[in-house]
Amino acid sequence: MLQQAFNGLVGGAFYALLALGLAVIFGMLGVVNFAHGAFYMLGAFGAFVALDSFGLNFWLALALVPVLLGAAGVALERLFIRRLAPLDPLYNFLFTFGLALILQDLVKRSYGVQSQPYPRPSELGGSIDLGLFTYPAYQVFVLAVSAVVCGAVWVVLTRTRVGMIVRAATERPELTRALGIDVGRWVTPVFGFGIALAGFAGVLAAPMRAVNPLMGADLIITVFAVVVIGGLGSVFGSVAAGFAVGLASALGNLYAPALSQTLVFILMAAVLLWRPAGLFGREEAFR
Amino acid sequence: MRLMGCGLAAAGVLLAGCAGGPGGGGGKISDGKVVLAVLNDQTAVYADVSGRNSVEAVRMAVADYKAKYGGKAASTEIEVVAADHQNKPDVANSKAQELYDRRRADVILDVPTSSAALAVANVAKNKKKIFIDVGAATTELEGKQCNKYTFHYGYNSYMLAHGTGTAVTQDGAKNWYIVYPDYAFGQDMQKTFTAAVQKAGGKVVKADPAPFPNDNFSTFLLKAPGMNPKPQVLGTMQAGGDLVNLVKQYNEYKLREKGVGLAAGLMFLSDIHSLGPDAMAGTRFTDAWYWNADPKNRAWADRFQAKTGKRPTSVHAANYSAALQYLEAVQRGGTDKADDVVGQLEGRKVEDVFARNGTIRAEDHLLLHDAYLAQVKPSAEVKEPWDYQRILKTIPASEAFQPQPDPACKL
């Protein structure tokens, strides 16, 4: 039971990392980024290509791939998202959705649909005795690293000047602008950062999940539910909801396997009935 | 002149001169040519198991047929066309109609995904055109939904369940824990496997449905060793990416070391390739054919690899065989008229690179042939790329498939 809960948290770590990026992007740009799952997939494929074609190991991939994807995110924002932002949100929705399909198909063309093999890093091959039970070392690593990343983002957002600006711009863009702060300057790096986070999650997933072009598409709907449960635009809420949903689906698997996939959406419906803005969301997000 | 002759033939005036058919066969080949259509998944989950390389396998059959009969061939004009059904029954239905009507297909081959295969079988029945299914597993094709124009070639869920379920149970793994994807294929596999295990004297301790698709199987894997009685084998009915996820996690949680073996319901060479043989080592499953089982298979696999860069899965080989046997039937009858070809195929003994001791059963149009219980080799024994399987035993044709035709099948 405890072990199952631990499991749920590991699954939740991926939801949290992805939801965190989505929430920051939504908060700052007002863009619902449907290509987020595709960037997660590209992260995993990036790790595979780095190893397969360039001989770069997992650790180098973990450092390099998110940076490259983040740069791609910056270019994407500059070239397209920026131009679409003033239009109806539907344009951005269609653009990112189409982009996700294009990215998936490009990967399919080059690597096929079959999953690609990716070994666990040898340093984390064994198991760790956690006192009450032993657990695969890699999973413990994933949980720790994602907790650290989520924590670091939270610290940056609450304790630094940059974070203050981002938070202010997320919640009250006009007022922030009126105070003489150039919100536009921060939009591009924030978008790039969100994409880099998705890529980071993808690299983390490569050794423990099937690396195939559809891995992001399979996950993204659940992640959207997570963001909605946490409250659109709420950074803390999306992380908390990510871990909570992971936990709920692990326990759901245990007691009612057939229901476990629907469980997330039942949870979402229940939360929305009780708090229409999500657990940690503010009504203003919907103005 | 030749072009003009063909034009006339198409107009139904003269055939033999253009098609170079055997003496007396004039007018027997519709449109002056034989068209083989491969309808399958070209871009999604079954694209590597079958996909474009199945089209290549069918082209190989056409080339071999032409080489064998030369000027004596019933038709020297043979065309291979392909279409993508995206694994959707509605798309499969409309594509099949298009292939038969507009592209003049005389036979449709492959069609993986059971729901799509059943849709095409229905089109074949209505249009009275031949359909040889290779890629789909459902036994409905030779059961309730069988028809005069549909054949099932290669493998089915009975073969998978009885091969693996029976052999593993008789080997001493009496207690099973089955995890299956919660959709039509998985539910069907769960039932057939449970029946096979029970018949062999074993017991299914528990069978859990898992969401589909799914990337986290840890809940199921963690509870397996704690069950009472403890299952000796975990039977997974997952396919494609889900199978890869499950096996990766099976290894992470060290279930083999905890005494829970692994048996796969449906697995292809391409799946082992994705995971690397180490992750799968020891896993047992039933296969319809293996490329490196004997020199004959290997020679064909070499030709296939020269064209595609990959080793063939059993589905590729079965598509080759199905196309070849179709063309041989056309040759024997001297015509591609569907009713005549059906007559040529029914009850036919088949012995080629794919089918050993094969018979196309007249009562339900199922190809009975030898199947194989296979095990994934540990990487230390893998001497060359793609040589991942060890054949543990040959399951004779009479045991591999349903011994009696399903009484629900009325052709």
From TrEMBL, chain A:
Q: What is this protein called?
A: Branched-chain amino acid transport system permease protein
The answer on whether this UniProt entry bears the keyword Cell membrane reads yes
Which family does the record claim for this protein?
A: Belongs to the binding-protein-dependent transport system permease family. LivHM subfamily.
Offer one Pfam family short name for this entry.
BPD_transp_2
Could you give a GO molecular-function term held by this entry? transmembrane transporter activity
Q: Give the superkingdom in one word.
A: Bacteria
Q: Per UniProt, which keywords does this protein have?
A: Amino-acid transport, Cell membrane, Membrane, Transmembrane, Transmembrane helix, Transport
Q: Where in the cell is it found?
A: Cell membrane
Which GO BP terms sit in this record?
Answer: amino acid transport
Organism equals Actinomadura viridis
Looking at the keywords, is Flavoprotein present? no
Q: What do the Gene Ontology cellular component annotations say?
A: plasma membrane
Q: Which PANTHER family match?
A: ABC TRANSPORTER ATP-BINDING PROTEIN, BRANCHED-CHAIN AMINO ACID TRANSPORT SYSTEM PERMEASE PROTEIN LIVH
- Give me the segments passing through the membrane: 12-36, 56-77, 89-107, 137-157, 186-207, 219-247, 254-274
The membrane topology of this protein is: Multi-pass membrane protein
Automatic annotation (TrEMBL), chain B:
Task: List keywords of the entry alphabetically.
Answer: Signal
Protein name, per record: Branched-chain amino acid transport system substrate-binding protein
Top-level taxonomic group: Bacteria
UniProt-listed InterPro entries: BCAA_transport, Leu-bd, Peripla_BP_I
Q: Which SUPFAM superfamilies match?
A: Periplasmic binding protein-like I (SSF53822)
Task: Give a yes or no for keyword Signal in this entry.
Answer: yes
The similarity comment for this entry is:
Belongs to the leucine-binding protein family.
Gene3D superfamilies, per database record? 3.40.50.2300
List each copy of the Leucine-binding protein domain by range.
34-377
Identify the CDD domains for this entry. PBP1_SBP-like
Keyword Signal assigned to the entry: answer is yes
One Pfam match, given by its short name, reads: Peripla_BP_6
